[in-house]
């Protein structure tokens, strides 16, 4: 799920900055960038992130911004630069190429410029680790706040599905008499009332109506919706479980639509499907 956390600390003209960002992902994809001087702490920081974040495409950026007084110098290897420059100059003369940017090109060659490695103390690591902890706490608070909004939205979507369902419960008992009346009218118009075998008609109606019965689907749908709501209240990471429950809700809705044989009920089923799709989209943000 999405999240953002930022923390910084200043110490002896050095600023430590930690920024954590995440996007939706089914698994934890961690991209950690930190200064070379702290490269030995990478595994430790990765383990903390894996334990605390669980899921998402996460980018952790750690920077050290030094003031002028804290900057270390850089060394230019003059002999190597001169050697590279002369070789390029000879090549340019032979090729008749433009030689105006040779110095700039040579400066980018390997080992021409070497930087003094920053030395860090245990105190520097303590400051950085504390800053990282604060950024992680800010990140988690952001996700908790977003999670509360998601929970409210998911609860609303389930309530909307149950509201459509309540309308179906009102319409469903009226469906069978209407079906029976339509069949009788069709037979009277095409066969004649006197030629209709009432016993056979009743048997066929019982068989046909049994195929259209949605009693079991109604019971299971309400049960799944209640289970979904109860699972939302849990403090555990239940994103996958909620996804499975939403699939079961979808199966019952689809079956009700297939058995409906009624325009009004099918319209309500479409409304339920729309709400369920919104639920599935939001579940991508739930751990």
TrEMBL record:
Pfam families: YicC-like_C, YicC-like_N
GO molecular function: hydrolase activity; RNA endonuclease activity
Annotated keywords: Endonuclease, Hydrolase, Nuclease
Cofactor: a divalent metal cation
Signal peptide: none
Chain ranges passing through the membrane: none
UniProt entry tagged with the keyword Nucleus: no
Domain Endoribonuclease YicC-like N-terminal: 1-151
Tagged with keyword tRNA processing: no
Domain Endoribonuclease YicC-like C-terminal intervals: 177-286
Family (UniProt): Belongs to the YicC/YloC family.
UniProt name for this protein: YicC family protein
Organism: Pedobacter hiemivivus
């Amino acid at each position: 799920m999405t999240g953002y956390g930022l923390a910084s600390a200043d110490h002896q003209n050095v600023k430590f900055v930690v920024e954590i960002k995440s996007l939706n992902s089914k698994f934890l994809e961690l991209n950690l960038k930190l200064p070379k001087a702290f490269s030995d702490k990478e595994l430790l920081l990765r383990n903390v992130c894996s334990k605390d974040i669980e899921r998402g495409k996460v980018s952790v950026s750690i920077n050290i911004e030094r003031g002028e007084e804290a900057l270390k110098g850089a060394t230019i290897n003059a002999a190597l630069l001169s050697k590279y420059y002369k070789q390029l100059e000879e090549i340019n003369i032979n090729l008749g190429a433009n030689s105006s940017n040779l110095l700039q090109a040579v400066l980018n060659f390997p080992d021409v410029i070497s930087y003094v490695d920053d030395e860090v103390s245990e105190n520097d690591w303590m400051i950085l680790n504390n800053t990282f902890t604060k950024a992680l706490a800010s990140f988690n608070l952001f996700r908790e706040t977003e999670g509360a909004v998601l929970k409210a939205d998911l609860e609303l979507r389930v309530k909307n599905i149950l509201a459509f369902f309540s309308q179906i419960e009102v319409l469903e008992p009226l469906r069978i008499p209407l079906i029976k009346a339509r069949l009788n009218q069709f037979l009277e118009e095409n066969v004649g009332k006197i030629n209709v075998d009432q016993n056979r008609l009743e048997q066929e109606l019982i068989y046909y109506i049994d195929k259209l019965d949605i009693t079991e689907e109604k019971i299971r749908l309400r049960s799944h919706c209640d289970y979904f709501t109860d699972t939302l209240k849990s403090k555990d990471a239940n994103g996958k479980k909620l996804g499975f429950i939403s699939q079961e809700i979808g199966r019952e809705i689809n079956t009700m639509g297939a058995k409906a044989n009624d325009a009004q009920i099918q319209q309500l089923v479409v409304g339920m499907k729309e709400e369920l799709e919104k639920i599935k989209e939001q579940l991508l943000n739930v751990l």
